[in-house]
Amino acid sequence: MCLFRETVTRVNCREYSPEQIAAWLGPVTDDVRAKWQASLLQHQTYLAWLGNTVVGFADMAATGYLDRLYVSADHQGEGIATKLVTTLMQAVPMAVYTTDASITARPFFEAQGFHVTKQNVVVRNEISLINFTMKKNRREKRLNLADKEVTQLEKMKIIGLFRKEGFTGEYESFQRVSGTDREFFVVMSNEQGIKALFRASLMLNAVEFQYVLDDKHTFVMKDDEAS
After folding, report:
1. What are the φ and ψ backbone dihedral angles of 71, each rounded to 5 degrees?
2. Which residues pair with 54 in a beta bridge?
3. 2-52: per-residue pLDDT in tens?
4. Do 159 and 122 belong to one domain?
5. In terms of CB atoms within 10 Å, which end of the chain has fewer, N or C?
């Protein structure tokens, strides 16, 4: 549970307020520990180790529901989450996989071929938190630049959104979000050559920063390079 609490505190704080983080974490009691242990034992569970240290874990129910996926804040973007999800899917072969993803985790799951089926508002201790029910068909592949090309008209509309929001820079690539026609991933670089990933929605007329791209954040990986 320590890894879970540290990850939520240090990583999910980008999208959730301190009050929401506290409600998400909840208390640490013997009853809570027992429930965690019982569900982890009931599910297919894998740990990611670096030497003698656990740096990530994930578990999946026999139904194909991915219950938990957490990676240490110090090892984000190293392919650990992808490896955990891939291993679970191999261990639990299902036609359809589902999960309830946080705002933070949504781009990761979309890059794995999941798409949003519903937005949820979860209330804990009278505090509301948003997450997304997501689904992936086993035959669906991860995002690839070859998937459904973004049209020139769509690019012009997206660029208009960026200008409206005051963003400036060079547009490196446009990628349609899996399972949608009106949402896109956009990679943009500034004058210093620093690249960042954005999510643009023509449905909501909004642009949302995701994260800075570096040697550990590649965004798109070829299938034969996935680890």
Report:
1. -125, 140
2. 49
3. 999 999 999 999 899 999 999 999 988 999 999 999 999 999 999 999 999
4. no
5. C
